[in-house]
Specification:
The complex is a heterodimer of chains A (about 100) and B (about 475). Chain A has helices at about 5-15, 20-45, 75-80; strands spanning about 85, 90-95. Chain A is mostly helical and about 100 residues long. Helices cover about 40% and strands about 20% of the residues of chain B. Chain B has helices at about 55-65, 160-175, 215-235, 280-290, 295-305, 310-315, 320-330, 335-355, 365-375, 380-395, 400-405, 415-430, 430-435, 445-455, 460-475; strands at about 5-15, 70, 75, 75-80, 90-95, 100-110, 110-125, 130, 135-140, 145-155, 190-200, 210-215, 245-250, 255-260, 270, 280. A 9-stranded mixed β-sheet of chain B has the order 2-6-7-10-1-11-12-13-14. Chain B has a 3-stranded antiparallel β-sheet with strand order 5-4-15, with no helix packed on it. In chain B, helix 12 packs across helix 14 (about 445-455) and helix 12 crosses helix 15. The chains are: A mainly alpha (about 100), B alpha+beta (about 475).
Chain lengths: ~100, ~475
């Protein structure tokens, strides 16, 4: 299993475009220690390859889908209420082009 | 050294459902920014995505038309990335279990048909629209959450022409299944292409270059052919091709570097926990397929059987609204080919001249049918019917009124009268007789023209043609 070090976490944070403080890294490292321990416990169980990975904790398959009926949209004033900066009825942000 | 190109295409198709993929906000183009949104599209806490049934039905129809295996259980995943076009910080897509896989489509290539395999089709949501200015960007969330189908081909495409044919084949399917407008110019269909080349005989693939921002079918062809040429020249100069994303620049007719790809972006895909797996019964899938509107290929086959030429069919089917108009008019005429001729030549030129679409045309298919029938059964010439059509279009009168106003009288079908004109035309054109005897069939058209001219268009051209042949045999 990959060892979770600060370098691994920094690399992951960079890829996800996050900045984190040293305290946050330390906390995350501690949390990972617990997680890894739990994973090792699972690793002790033999013959796991026979099982499909589980995405949901129990079978919760549904057949429900929403009918394609539009509802009243948000009034624009409400939609833009939380925006820190606005211009021409749009949300204004510093330019970042990926 | 000769190179072969290996091309794969990813096509994003915007679905024209009434509401969005996971929210009930209206899915309609609006010039008014931020007026077509629900709390989910803005990622308000506590909002939950609910899958749009029609978007699923559309995806099943397209998957079926592309001969794909359809997954009976829908799973969605989160594609995580941090960018302002995506308020949630992730896009809901289908990474692990696409709704359709392992399909193909046949495309026309010189000398026959070629099978282009399709890896997958999956559903996802569109991002918001960003407009970039000097030092800031403006965000309009109207597009955020619009249902998309992404169709990913296998690298089976060998050149620009095949790529265009492929993109057009996909367009025909998504348009006629009622899934999308399929307009590349307006962004409702977007093509990203991956192009690499390798020397003939080499097994390993060359370095892949992605080309984006292609906004028309013609440009799909041009961009790929340009890219193949660019890469070939680099290799011939002993240079390396770098893995990069380029964009098509229509003005200069070239691809331009956007960014060099270093590390593959890690999107940290994981299953979308807020949408539980959705099981679709055989009946549900079967019904989606059975209720699919008639597709392009089937219409094409049917129109060809009606006697239309390949070109006629392509012109009519290029616009589904024209096809609908044509089909509405067919019951009112004897021969669909005559209706097609009027539609393709006269109606299209009227639409172009006036800058309107066929939906805006005030002439009903039934009225056009009546005018065509005047030619078929009423003894009027094509030219006379065109005059009537133009008067109807311009003045909004009925075909009968137009005929009366224009003082148009039915053509003379009386054999003796026509024969007089025919004989006269032959007497005046001995060279044409000689040419005809020598096997030149085209002079017949010329002679018909002479008779029509002499009679001021009042004789029946079909009858003229028949009598001309008879007379020519005698001479």
């Amino acid at each position: 299993m990959k060892k979770i070090t600060k370098e691994v976490l920094t690399d992951a944070a960079n890829r996800l475009l996050f900045t984190m403080s040293d305290e946050q890294y330390a906390k995350l490292e501690d949390e990972f220690k617990i997680l890894i321990k739990q994973m090792e416990k699972i690793g002790e169980i033999s013959d796991l390859d026979r099982y499909e990975p589980m995405t949901f904790p129990f079978d919760c398959t549904t057949t429900f889908m929403r009918e394609d009926v539009p509802e009243e949209p948000l009034p624009r004033e409400v939609a833009l209420k939380n925006a820190g900066s606005k211009q021409d009825e749009q949300i204004k942000l510093p330019k970042v082009v990926l | 050294m000769n190179f072969e190109a290996i091309i794969g295409i990813e096509i994003h198709v915007q679905q024209k459902t009434k509401s969005k993929m996971f929210s009930a906000a209206p899915n309609g183009f609006s010039r008014d920014p931020n007026t077509q949104i629900a709390p989910l599209d803005m990622a308000y806490p506590g909002t939950m995505p609910v899958v749009n049934k029609q978007a699923v039905i559309n995806a099943i129809r397209v998957a079926n038309a592309l001969h794909m295996e359809i997954d009976h259980t829908l799973y969605f995943d989160r594609k995580n990335y941090f960018y302002s076009d995506l308020p949630k910080g992730f896009q809901i897509t289908q990474q692990a279990r696409p709704i359709g896989k392992n399909g193909y489509v046949m495309v026309a290539v010189p000398g026959g048909m070629k099978k282009i395999r399709i890896e997958r089709i999956h559903m996802e949501e569109d991002t918001c629209k960003q407009e970039h200015f000097m030092d800031y960007s403006l965000l309009d969330y109207n597009r955020a959450g619009v249902p998309l189908c992404e169709i990913v081909s296998m690298p089976d495409i060998a050149n620009g022409t095949e790529a265009r044919e492929y993109a057009e084949a996909i367009r025909n399917i998504v348009v006629y299944s009622g899934t999308s407008d399929g307009k590349m110019e307006e962004g409702s269909m977007r093509c990203d292409t991956n192009v690499s080349i390798r020397p003939y005989g080499q097994k390993a693939f060359g370095t892949k270059v992605e080309v984006k921002n292609i906004n028309s079918f013609k440009n799909v062809e041009l961009a790929i052919d340009y890219e193949i040429k660019r890469q070939s020249q680099l290799l011939l100069q002993g240079k390396k091709i770098q893995q990069e994303t380029r964009r098509w620049d229509e003005a200069s007719g070239r691809t331009v570097l956007m960014r060099v790809k270093t590390d593959a972006v890690d999107y940290k895909y994981f299953c979308e926990p807020n949408i539980t797996p959705i099981h679709m019964s055989d009946e549900f899938i079967q019904k989606a397929i059975e209720t699919c509107p008639e597709l392009y290929d089937s219409k094409k086959e049917r129109y060809l059987k009606m006697g239309l030429s390949e070109t006629d069919v392509e012109v009519i089917l290029a616009n589904p609204k024209t096809a609908a108009y044509f089909e509405e008019g067919v019951p009112f005429v004897q021969n669909a080919k005559n209706l097609a001729n009027f539609l393709i030549v006269e109606i299209n030129s009227y639409l172009n001249k006036n800058g309107i679409t066929i939906q805006e045309l005030e002439l009903s298919p039934k009225t056009l049918g009546e005018i065509v029938t005047m030619q078929e059964k009423g003894g009027l010439s094509h030219k006379q019917c065109v005059d009537i059509l133009n008067k109807v279009l311009e003045e909004g009168v009925s075909p009968e009124e137009a005929k009366k106003d224009l003082k148009i009288v039915a053509q003379v079908s009386d054999t003796d009268t026509i024969l007089k004109f025919v004989k006269e035309a032959l007497d005046n054109n001995p060279q044409s007789i000689a040419d005809f005897k020598a096997g030149n069939q085209r002079v017949l058209g010329f002679l018909v023209g002479q008779v029509m001219k002499a009679s001021h268009g009042k004789v029946n051209p079909a009858e003229v043609s028949r009598l001309l042949r008879e007379e020519l045999e005698k001479r």
